[in-house]
Structures
1.
Amino acid sequence: MEDRLPKAEVSALDTLRANASKIADALLPVLAVLAALAIGAIILLMLGANPVAAYGALLEGAFGSGNAVAETIVKATPLLLVGLGICIAFRGNVINIGGEGQMVVGALLATLVGLRLTSWPGWVVVPLAMLAGFVGGAIWGGIPGILKAYFRVNEILSTVMMNAIAVQAMNYLLRGPMIDPAQMELASRIPQTAALPEAFRLPRLAPTRLHLGAFIAVVLAVGVYILLWRTTLGYRIRAVGQNPDASRYGGIRVRHHVVVALLLSGAFAGLAGATQVFGVNYRMITDGSATGFTGSAGFNGIVAALFGQLHPIGAIPASFLFGALLVGANKLQRMMQVPSAFITSLNGLVVVFVVSSDIWRRQRQKRRLAAAQRAAEAAVADSGGPA
Amino acid sequence: MSANFVERWFSQVSERTGVAPRRAAIYGLVFLGVSLLIFALFATSSQAGQVTTFVLNPSGETEAFPVPSLAFPTSAALYLFVLVCAFVGGWQLARGFKRINLVLGGILALFVLAFLAWAARDNSLNLTGLLGSALLRAVPIALAGLSGVLCERSGVVNIAIEGIMLTGAFFSALMGSLAANIWGWSLWPSLVFGLAGGLLAGALLGLLLAVLSVRFKIDQIIAGTAINILSMGITSFLSARILTEFQRLNNPGIFPRFSVPGLASIPIIGPIFFEQNLLVYALFVLLFVIHIMLFYTRWGLRTRAVGEHPRAADTLGIDVYKNRYINVMLGGMMAGLGGAFLILGSVGRFDEMMTAGKGFIGLAAMVFGKWMPFGTFGAALIFGFADALQTKLAILEVPIPSQFLLMAPYIVTMVILAGVVGEAKPPAADGQPYEKQ
């Protein structure tokens, strides 16, 4: 059909249409967030709160001042780090639901290093602790990796189980061997470790809480991009993710790369845990659940990564957005006296809508491709079959 | 040379028993290891003259014929267990067993028994009560597992079971309380109304999952995770808003215990299985019904076809989408029932996050039970037992940090999933959205 039209006309029409749908695609996630917020507004109305004032508070809380923006970045940092790991895992077609547990174990190991080596200089201990976090997460991600690759244990199940095990290990250590001696004396027994020496704190941009971890995370995002698209290892991980059979015929060790993908994925989550300890709290503290330490970053990081189209660079603005939502929601809660569970629901709504919109985009893309193919076939048929 | 000998040896064992050589060897070593563990952990730390008593009568009111308690010298029993395990392990290495999984189950049971005998030395433990409470704790896990069976047999991974259970629990508490305390209904109608609330909530969330994953083909894991987050948010929110302010709305009453005439008077078995509440019996019925439906009806054949090879099923005129919608909604209802059980069959009030991972454990039970209803139930019993044991041990003041006991079922599950039981194979199209052509 297309070759019956004048050539110039076709290309002009096509570029216009292509550009329009590209813009629509780019806007879709934003629209999805808006739709979720609209439903949130209805809930707010039912609660008797003014949605305009509420969302005003949310925006102000997230971006209202330099300090607010800094807080947003602080919240975004673990999301980005976990999200980077998720990019690697999902590109390798392994699903890592174990971010929570990996964060916990990474933080535990890092804290252990920090508390044991108190007499060492900070410039030695801090990198060591970050490394410990990296290794801890890698172990916690690597175990499900090995189980999947060599014993065919479903990684969703095993990562969820590893979360549960990590939580118990954390509760044991923070209530027992690693508990803050001061808490023992006070007999309040809050499950937390002793504070880290001041020399070990990640440098901050005073007076805000913005710490070096954010910078590390952004640098690592570039690193993960290079890893995935500019190195052989990354190429192999992606190849295994897209077509394990073809990869095997191509001589790639599929099992090995499944393990590596999950291991790296866990390592980034572990690093996220370590930066939380050394950059934000300066000690490890929990309320008995994983969320008490991670703030659900291990789960929200998945969402941030998906929102960023599983691209490490895309994950940067995506985690910033979710960080903003978290910080703004805090403000909203304080200003409007809305229960915190509303925020959780809002978070869930945003996830559902964003993910749905992404699927819709992919379907449209597929339909467009199919239409183009049909058109091409029709054109071929019109001109009397392939020459 | 020697490696060669070992290889030849186990290939002979393998030929005799039909168990793969490597597995046969690993099993033998595991049995010997269990023997060693019982020796090192329990036998050496119990002194001569200590006596363990297992009480076999349930503690409360019962119709069962009374049976005498079982009292035995602790260390003698433990050394006997050590010898039995060592003998079984040796036999496995030398000759090999054919029904190896059965033997493994027996050895693990022996280990648990040894642990109980050790924990209750110079003390008494109500074994019947322990098993009864294990069953009670297994019910919600089994229902969650059945939910998983129904969904995954049709090819939809349902990771939202946790959230659906939570929502089911909330609405059964709310609706049951509404009926009982506001409208003044009598016990049974209000219990049924509460149950209906749980089922309805489950069906609706199942529908949501189906719409997201079947209609819109969203990654099923993500859709499920989103539903989980949503459920936690909504139930916490509503319970903070409604249930804590109006306590009367969080008190629906519970199903009374009902002894099955005749069966309840069998000693030991009776009190464990037949002096429970109606919801427990409902689970027994559901197990049979779902098993028969899945394997002996047209609907079941279609469901399994859709789960294994949707394209072929579609070609034969089966409506893949409709089948998945129905199955996921039924699965949602099972999870909702599991949530309702937590309220109406057990504690009688809703608490935030009260499911505490039971939905995920249910999924593990499903995999462990190889996607079969009765297998799932059996696995759920193991998890339920671990759960019940842990509360019991707190009473016996066993010097093991509770966190390790809480960890144990997860570790055991992973080890078992790692192939000790043999590979568990999910339906072939599990987790893959189907697109009509």
Note: The interface with chain A takes residues 157, 159, 212, 216-219, 221-223, 225-227, 229-238, 240-241, 357, 360, 363-364, 367, 401, 403-404, 406-407, 410-411, 413-414, 417-419, 423, 426 of chain B (CB under 8 Å).
2.
Amino acid sequence: MSGRAFVFGDNIDTDVLAPGKYMKAPVEELARHCMEAIAPDFAQTVRAGDVVVAGRNFGMGSSREQAAQALKILGVSAVVAKSFGGIFLRNALNLGLPVMVCPTTEQIRQDDRVAVDLVGGRVINETTATTLAGEPLPGFLLDMLADGGLVPHLEKRLAAKRETSG
Amino acid sequence: MGMTLAEKIIAKAAGRPKVAPGEIVTCKVDLAMIHDSGGPRRVKPILDRLDVGVWDPSKVVLITDHYVPATDDESRNIQAIARSFAAAQRIANFYDQQGICHVVLPERGHLRPGMFAVGGDSHSPTGGAFGAYMFGVGATEMAGVLATGEIWLRVPETILIDWTGKLGAGVSSKDMMLLLCAKLGMDGGRYQAVQYAGDAVRALPMQERMTLANMAAELGGQAGLIEADSITKDFLRAAGADVEDDESWRGDADATMSEHHVFDATALEPQVAAPHSPANAAPVSSHTGTRVDVAYIGACTGAKLEDLRMAASVLRGRKAARGVELLVAPASLRDQEIARREGTLDVILQAGGRLLANACGICAGYGDERFGENVTAISSTARNFKGRMGAATSNVYLGSPYTVAASAVEGRIADPRAHI
């Protein structure tokens, strides 16, 4: 499955992804303001399955996981960047939002059709018919993503534990 | 081959004799700190769904600081959730509106060298100033920690930053960090452990060291570390912590550092970071003369007792320039009361300072106090991202408490060394 690429630069911060002004509002409302300070149309135009493509240090800044959650609510299917803010990366995976490091994201243009192969660790640009190498995630994180994130993953683990002990 | 301080703490927490960078390990958490924003209101629904409580309430510290003061129904509701969570989960270490979590946590004696700790806030590396390994996580990850008492991590490399020499008058740890943001970039820390060392670091009082560890976040490090010494232990013992006299929480001399940077504190000038990134830092002379509307002394980074003292040393007997709003939000109630007793607070208020709550305030940008359209501010806080502290058209410059105070007096960004 592929989606339309929304391309951003380096150091996209969590205040841009999840503006503080809306942090006490329900996250669905906050999501409508995602990226507002730098790309006012993003939240209105992004569609389910689309892919966010960025440069270095995507999601730097705050630990607020609404930054990743907002993208997920907007339907973003994956974020591909040259590098990520460490906390954002963990938050995204915990919330079941696929993320992948790809050192050559500058080769993807706005509106290209791209597909992200998490297991194979590559990004397929259908528009240019090229494949970019990415860094595959460790197996235990792929498993967590496959479960839908940390909470369903823990639910499964705790249920298994209760069964063996009970 | 020996181990770094980070490796030693992680090895202990992972129950292994040795760990090496790159390995993925699961660690037992010694302490989990949560606040009102990413804490109870976000973790409670997850714990309810998992049908579990907090794994060990004695290891959890809850501090309200983000939606303080609660000036609307949403904020009051968030605070009410925090209070009922503390009661239901029997969290005795609950500090309600006592100040900012990163400052309150050590001030109340909860940290010790060698601890493996997580905090539900990105400035959690502050705890590393005490020789603990502490890092920030989001709410879902924190819920996982509260449910299981464990967290995974990739053992970090250690990036050593050596500060030789001695800081000059009117120059502070904030200037050290702004310079590092400019030199290494906001991803220079590569989510590894950033360790500070050298004569200039050892000479710093505890709260100045906290600023170094705190802003490891702005370098993109997972943690910021300083080896404990007598200054650390004296601070923690005065705070009521039970600190042993063992020297085991130091890195081995033959441990491998992945990077080693050396900077000269003697030559360091006051730094100012232009909008909208701490990495836009340059010597203050590049910005002197820029008019400011607001001078803000606030946050865990820039309004601890030591920060208030720096500001007061410039403001003593002076007034903020006409048209400049001087705002001060002491980082903790206890620091504010000490500042009041010793006269530091009065100096700032006499200069025209308006006192704000002991909370994250404008730095978090969650409350009513935010910078308006086209406002230019100079701030002692850590981050000046676009739109964070106010309108997207506001411009925030970052500087030390000395520089913020000097700029308040002149009404323009000013070199504090002329005022000391």
Note: The two ends of chain A are 42 Å apart (CA to CA).
